[in-house]
Design brief:
Elements: H1 3-8, H2 16-33, H3 45-49, H4 55-58, H5 70-91, H6 93-120, H7 125-135, H8 142-155, E1 160-163, E2 167-170, H9 171-188, H10 191-210, H11 219-234, E3 265-267, E4 276-278
Antiparallel strand pairs: 1-2, 3-4
Length: 298
């Protein structure tokens, strides 16, 4: 735990994912009741510089894909709530807060940088205001959600989701697809898209660089995994019968990868002693110190 976290961690917002979903729900209600009000809520940096400072936070009420099918909206909100709460449980409130709020700050900064870019390009007066008003819709919560999903893919790369409710697909592959989509959008999109996507990707890069022990794809964790695979290949343990022994075992239920092909195992970074848990018990165990017996949350 860093000194900064020790000092300011107590101010972290708990259940931040739930609060974001509530903001989106309020936004959908506003869109249903009075859709024209969204023009006063977007992240328009030019309007902010002219005194409409509420836009610095009101854009968070503009939900992604406003006006789309409400059945798919409900599924989307449930999905983002689930992946957000999973990150909160593994990272803790403080780290999750830092990641989400940094994404928000970078999005706001990208809107102002884009407005400055337009000024340098020669736009001014009513022309600048018109272009900023049109481009403000790109600086939305859509890219905040993309950041959260990419963080989930980095933290739980082996987790599976069902594409179209049928096709099982590992999250890491969806993460690569999203990165490819963002890069393609930067190449083919307009200048506003380039600025906001660059801010989103910068947040993910900063996450990757500063996470050393609490993310599956952090640099330190990647090195440890490589060393572990090398040691397994050099000398795998065998059982008395000569059959290969289990490589993974849940500290709670004792199951191994031999008990089912679909079982997944993860090390808990908050438990001392290198304890490993299956997916069913990763979030339902009490963090223990070295030498203590692992047990479930009562």
């Amino acid at each position: 735990m860093s000194n900064f976290e020790k000092r300011f961690g107590k101010y972290a917002v708990s259940n931040l994912s739930l609060k974001l979903v509530v903001l989106y729900i309020v936004g959908y209600v506003l869109y249903f009741v009075q859709p024209a009000i969204f023009s006063l809520l977007t992240l328009d940096a030019s309007a902010i510089l002219h005194g409409q400072i509420w836009r610095l936070v009101s854009w968070l009420l503009v939900p992604p894909d406003a006006g789309s099918n409400y059945f798919f909206v409900a599924i989307m909100l449930y999905f983002y709530y689930n992946i957000g709460t999973s990150l909160e449980r593994v990272w803790g409130d403080y780290k999750y807060n830092v990641y989400v709020f940094l994404g928000i700050i970078l999005t706001v900064a990208s809107a102002f940088l884009w407005t400055g870019f337009l000024r340098i390009s020669g736009l001014s007066g009513t022309d600048l205001e018109y272009v900023c008003r049109l481009g403000a819709s790109y600086f939305s919560t859509y890219y905040i959600n993309m950041c959260i999903f990419l963080a989930f893919a980095l933290t739980f790369p082996e987790a599976q989701v069902y594409l179209f409710f049928i096709l099982p697909l590992k999250v890491k592959y969806l993460g690569w697809i999203d990165v490819g989509f963002l890069i393609l959008s930067m190449i083919s999109g307009n200048s506003a898209e380039r600025f906001v996507i660059a801010a989103a990707l910068l947040n993910v890069v900063l996450l990757f660089m500063r996470s050393r022990s609490w993310m599956s794809y952090s640099p330190g964790e990647m090195i440890r995994r490589r060393q572990f695979r090398k040691s397994v290949q050099e000398g795998r343990k065998t059982s008395p019968a000569g059959e290969p022994g289990a490589m993974h075992r849940c500290a709670i239920c004792g199951r191994t990868e031999k008990d089912g092909d679909m079982l997944e195992f993860r090390y808990c970074t908050k438990c001392e002693g290198g304890l490993e848990y299956c997916r069913d018990h990763l979030f339902s165990h009490v963090h223990v110190k070295k030498g203590e017996k692992p047990h479930m949350i009562p």
